[in-house]
Specification:
- The longest helix is centred in the first third of the chain and has 14 residues.
- This protein has ten helices and eleven strands.
- Helix 2 links the parallel strand 1 and strand 2.
- The chain has two domains: 136 residues, 3-Layer(aba) Sandwich (D-Maltodextrin-Binding Protein, domain 2); 118 residues, D-Maltodextrin-Binding Protein, domain 2.
- Helix 9 packs across helix 10.
- With 271 residues, the protein is α/β, with parallel strands linked by helices.
């Protein structure tokens, strides 16, 4: 994670020399995890630059990167790094995706507030999502069947979970798939026996976070690397950004501007 932070700092130092551009429109699409960060920053940016209009949509990290490759968006939000096969496809189309680390996040397991379970190990989480543990009593809870909720497989959040929790093994077919972090949180809040996972910025009073290996997911444990399911969040541009896109990326990375909005959105600033 340090290398991503250093990269962002270097990028910020270089891009601050960007020139003034004609005002216009900026399209942003992709990760639902990065969505509230992008929305919060865009609102602040448009207040300072009322002649610039920014449109933002979700759809998932894969959709955002696909849009960059296809040339249908200016910025792709992604909660994971670009895949080798996506780089290959981009190069074949003459596109050169450039990554900007814009904040940090951790993926936290969540349960219903009435669930007595407070901590699970990575191994227990893996077994729950493989269907090998299917009753809460096996992990210190009540004698109730576990309802397992996951992000859909096109999600960057799912892919990070698959890598860091599942060790590249697939979740079992009985898992309920949801299209966004908000949908996962809503599903958990409505079912006392459910478990899911969401980005830290989506945690609210309707769900209860569960520690992993007795470590709570937080800004401190994410930045010091002790929480095991942490990640940087990205914005990608097609080639080095110019004009309004460059100015917006500068704003996102600015410690007293965009990074303040990152924290207000409930995520973890770079600095």
């Amino acid at each position: 994670m340090k290398k991503f932070c250093v990269y962002a700092l270097v990028v910020f130092g270089i891009t601050c020399i960007g020139s003034t551009a004609f005002a216009g429109n900026i399209n942003i699409t992709g990760s639902t995890t990065v969505l509230p960060v992008a929305q919060k920053i865009a609102e602040a940016y448009m207040k300072e630059h009322p002649d610039v209009k920014i449109s933002i949509s979700g759809g998932g990290s894969g959709e955002g990167i696909k849009a960059i490759i296809d040339g249908t968006t200016d910025i792709a939000d992604s909660s994971r790094f670009i895949k080798d096969k996506e780089i290959k496809l981009a190069l074949e189309k003459g596109k050169y995706p450039v990554p900007f680390s814009v904040s940090y996040d951790c993926i936290v397991p969540v349960v219903h507030p009435t669930n007595p379970v407070t901590s699970l190990t990575l191994e227990q989480l893996k077994k729950i999502y493989k269907g090998e543990i299917n009753n809460w009593k096996d992990v210190g809870g009540e004698d109730k069947k576990i309802v397992v909720v996951s992000r859909d497989t096109s999600s960057g959040t799912y892919e990070v979970w698959e890598e860091k929790v599942m060790n590249k093994e697939r979740i079992y077919p009985g898992v309920l798939l949801q299209a966004s972090n908000g949908a996962v949180a809503q599903a958990i809040s409505g079912n006392p026996h459910a478990i899911g996972y969401i980005g830290l910025g989506y945690v609210n009073s309707s769900v209860k976070t569960v520690k992993v290996n007795d470590i709570e997911g937080s800004e401190v444990t994410t930045l010091n690397g002790s929480f095991p399911i942490s990640r940087p969040l990205f914005m990608f541009t097609s080639g080095w950004p110019t004009g309004d896109t460059l100015n917006f990326i500068n704003y996102v990375l600015h410690p007293q501007k965009g990074q303040v909005q990152v924290k207000e959105a409930g995520f973890i600033p770079l600095y």
